[in-house]
Structure formats: C-alpha cells, structure tokens
Amino acid sequence: AVAGSTVELGCSARGDPAPQVQWHKEHGDLPWGRHEVDREHTLHLYAVTSADAGAYVCTAQSQLGTAAATTFLHV
C-alpha cells in the first residue's frame, strides 16, 4: 500500500449460528482512530503509515469453533 492511502482487508465468515468476527494486528494495536470494521467484516485502515505494516488476523468464532486467517500489509 502507498503511505497515506486507505486499505481494505476482507474477511469472509459464514455459519449457523453466524460467527462473531474480530480483527487484530499480530504485533501491536489497530491504528487508533484510523480504522473501522463494516457489516461485511472488512477492515478499513485510513491514512496508512509504515507503522501500520505487518500481519493482520481475522478471527471468526461461534459455538462450533474458531477459525482465523492472516494477511500481511506492506506500506
């Protein structure tokens, strides 16, 4: 990603019952005041900086279990 741009990281999780979906950064916190997660579980990162680079993990959890996927952001 180019510094200063907006990045969208998708996460698709389905099930019955519908799983709870959460995002976190593997080493550190999500950028304070510069991120949001929409209804489709997409993580939006605004005005990215080099400090935002790293691994982001989407975790889906329900009564049936937990699944996680990791994506890497390079700035």
Automatic annotation (TrEMBL):
SMART domains with a match to the protein in the record: IGc2
Biological processes per GO annotation: axon guidance; dendrite self-avoidance; homophilic cell adhesion via plasma membrane adhesion molecules
Claim: Cell membrane is one of the keywords in the record: yes
One Pfam family named in its UniProt record: I-set
Domain Ig-like stretches: 1-75
Record's keyword terms, sorted: Cell membrane, Disulfide bond, Glycoprotein, Immunoglobulin domain, Membrane, Repeat
The protein's name in its UniProt record: ROBO1 protein
Native source organism of the sequence: Certhia brachydactyla (short-toed tree-creeper)
Lineage, broadest ranks: Eukaryota, Metazoa, Chordata, Craniata, Vertebrata
